[in-house]
Design a protein that fits this description.
This protein has about 350 residues and is of the alpha+beta class. It is built from eleven helices and eight strands.
Length: about 350
């Protein structure tokens, strides 16, 4: 009986100082005929090999691994701290870049020491996958914190608070996240240079959809993350998410009512007075730095009428003195619409770009 029990226990072998599971008893010899002409070599590309390793280095995967969770928890907290310090203005780009490189190095060394994700480590392809995924996650944290801060700022202006219908955009976060993401990218590249990975490349944000990543991994910058943070199912405030905003630019927009508003009574609405209870009543304002170097503010109350014309260009609604072409182009790139607009008019396609 003892012999039967012992044979069922896993067996291990020692190799180069590591303990490995011995599965040699599970190997079988193929005795059939082989058609050599039909055999094809299995030669995945470097990108395919790296992709196969990525899931081991997602933040949720490492948090759930007994081998690396404690180390990753410390690194995880330090990432959040670094992002917050940078957005607060308490950390420079060079410091953020070095912090990123140091944290990635620490994660790599701890993984190898503990035999994560395999007893023999991850090898070159796995290490590059770890670096790529580390950057992707760091970028997500940056965008997540920036969107959170941006929306918290905007909340103070919203008549109906969190339950209301409003959007707030501060271009400081666009430029802050651009700097932060660039610094983190440099930190990962410096890590890869020290490792001798001359062929290392980052996964494009759009490819994260296929890889089933989470959150703002899908988005490359503040504009794309901001535009997709409202759950507008593809109908965005931006005509072109790639257009950079003017510096020192802030925009706030709000229409009345609370909760999900898809059906409402069409009625005449005073365009000159904002009614926070009326879903057809709307307002907006912008602040910007003029050619004189001073901050200017322009506001506008207006009304929707529940028709197809409720899709409007911000540039057409606001009038201001000054000939700042970048500001004008960005306002042309912004559009507003009434609640449930694209449910009523799903085929509407307007391009406000001049």
């Amino acid at each position: 009986m003892d012999g039967i029990q012992n044979s069922a226990l896993p067996k291990y072998i020692e190799y180069k100082g590591r303990t490995l599971l011995n599965i040699s008893d599970q190997l079988t010899k193929y005795e059939g005929d082989l058609d050599v002409d039909k055999l094809k070599p299995f030669a995945p590309s470097a990108a395919e090999r790296r992709r196969a390793w990525r899931s081991y280095f997602y933040s949720e995967t490492m948090r759930g691994s007994s081998k690396i969770s404690d180390v990753y928890a410390e690194i995880d907290n330090e990432i959040d701290d670094a992002v917050n310090r940078f957005l607060d203005g308490d950390m420079s780009e060079d410091e953020l870049s070095q912090t990123c490189q140091d944290l990635l190095t620490r994660l790599s060394e701890a993984s190898d020491e503990r035999g994560y994700p395999t007893p023999m480590g991850a090898g070159v392809d796995g290490d590059q996958a770890r670096a790529d995924t580390f950057f992707s996650d760091f970028r997500r944290r940056i965008l997540d914190r920036a969107i959170e801060r941006n929306n918290q700022e905007g909340l103070q202006y919203a008549a109906n608070g969190k339950d209301g219908h409003w959007q707030y955009y501060n271009s400081d976060y666009y430029y802050g996240t651009e700097s932060a993401i660039s610094a983190v990218k440099d930190g990962v590249m410096n890590y890869c240079r020290e490792k001798g990975y001359s062929d290392f490349t980052f996964t494009e944000p759009g490819e994260e959809w296929e890889l089933k990543a989470v959150g703002f991994n899908y988005y490359s910058d503040f504009n794309s993350a901001w535009s997709n943070s409202f759950g507008l199912t593809g109908h965005k405030a931006f005509v072109d998410e790639d257009q950079a905003p003017p510096k020192d630019f802030v925009w706030f927009y709000e229409f009345g009512g609370k909760g999900k508003i898809y059906m409402y009574e069409r009625k005449d609405t005073d365009p000159n007075t904002f009614d926070p209870e009326n879903p057809l009543s709307a307002r907006m304002w912008i602040s910007y730095r003029g050619e004189d170097g001073k901050i200017h503010k322009v506001s506008k109350n207006f009304a929707f009428d529940g028709s197809a014309s409720d899709l409007k260009s911000v540039a057409d609604l606001l009038s201001f003195s000054g000939k700042d072409r970048d500001l004008t182009r960005f306002l042309q790139n912004l559009r507003v619409f009434s609640g449930g607009y694209f449910r009523q008019y799903p085929a509407t396609r307007l391009d406000f770009r001049a």
